[in-house]
Amino acid sequence: MPAVTADTNGTNKTAVLIVAAGRGHRAGAGLPKQYRRLAGIAVLRHTIARFQAWGAGGGIRCVIHPDDVDLYTDAVAGLENLLDPVNGGETRQESVLNGLRAFRKTDPDRILIHDAARPFVAPDVIAAVDAAIDARTGAIAACPIVDTLKRDAGDGRIGATLTRDGLWAAQTPQGFSFDAILKAHEEAQTKGIAVTDDAAIAEAVGMPVRLVESGRDNVKLTTEADFSEAERRMSPDVFPEIRTGHGYDVHAFEPGDGIVLGGIDIPHDQRLKGHSDADVALHTITDALYGALADGDIGHHFPPSDPQWKGAASDVFLRHAGERVRARQGRITAIDVTIICETPKIGPHRERMRDRIAEILAIERERISVKATTTERLGFTGRSEGIAATATATIMLPPSVNTP
After folding, report:
1. Phi, psi of 205 (to 5 degrees)
2. How far out from the chain centre does Cα 170 lie?
């Protein structure tokens, strides 16, 4: 897998460990639940998208089962901000320790540990947990208990009614100082302490842990009923908000021997000038998607002043925009791009462009339109001095994530 690339918000130095090594038997037969598909996308990819959209500057790493390498590779294909996965252990606790040890080389300041099967975690919850961490204190997402609690007497009858005062249901992410939680896990292993979450590890070694209120939307997909409800939440029938974004971009020609346009290489007697590969078509689609989300523009997320983007392939930018849509549980319903130039001729390359854009965004090619026109030899495109492109993107967002 590719190494971690960008810290897209420029300040966040927190790493993310996503625990995806379980088998998920309670979710029913078939694939492990983290690889089952919701709205056509693997649960794990939905979860990763939430953290990529938030901006994990310390990198994102998954702990996976050694038998799931192919499933993992397929689920994360094309994602850029990932460190190499690490194999899990016999228990969740062992898997987390393996993952923490794998971060020793990069030594992040803080780390968020999250269950792969919680794909609905809100970006503001991630940010709140991260903000609550300090060198001595951890923090977890949690939800106050509102239901009356009953204890089973052992024969199917009520044995006692419990008070719910002060009780919270633990969720993830759970965040800590990296050095502190690694030391706590190592100590727990040495002493044979066995628990079910990382906050309990911290408690066992005397580390205070703050509660950060989350909500019931941050559900862990466990049973078949959970998956049915998750699919319902992501159904177009409950997506009342339709958004449209517009993009426009221009790049001039300079001496060269070919251009990158619509994600494909096209032979030409010049090339396009730009800080990246200057793919004007992908740039304008990227901006259209950001526009539909009211999420800035390509220069905000990938500043041209940053040398790491010099010569970068523009599919990185477009894929990021697509993942931003998915991070808010949205769907891309249509992309319409018009390329404006005298040369090269776009017609012979149109279908390959559609295929490539569909591949980058992980959507059906039938949702993508690529058109071309000229300016009847008027203006800079008419003089063959460069290429312009304009695009419109339409997306659907569910009600629970309408706010950026």
Report:
1. -105, 15
2. 22
Distance, CA of 58 to CA of 184 (rounded, Å): 20
Give the integer Cα–Cα distance in Å for 150 and 251. 67
Distance CA 95, CA 272 (A): 47
pLDDT band of residue 34 (cuts 50, 70, 90) is very high
How far apart, in whole angstroms, are the C-alpha atoms of residue 231 and residue 224? 11
- Domain range enclosing 101: 14-234
The answer to whether position 321 is within a domain reads: yes
- Yes or no: say if 81 and 327 are a contact pair by the CB < 8 Å rule: no
Q: Quick one: which of 357, 314, 301, 316 has its CA closest to 334?
A: 357
**Amino acid identity for residue 319 in this structure:** R
Q: What are the tens digits of pLDDT across the range 236-291?
A: 565 568 999 999 999 999 999 999 999 999 999 999 998 899 999 999 999 999 99
**pLDDT per residue as tens digits for the range 293-314:** 999 999 999 998 888 888 899 9
CATH number of the domain encompassing residue 331: 3.30.1330.50
Residues 6+ apart with CB under 8 A from 189: 93, 94, 97
**What is the average per-residue pLDDT within 370-399?**
92
Name the DSSP letter for residue 326: H
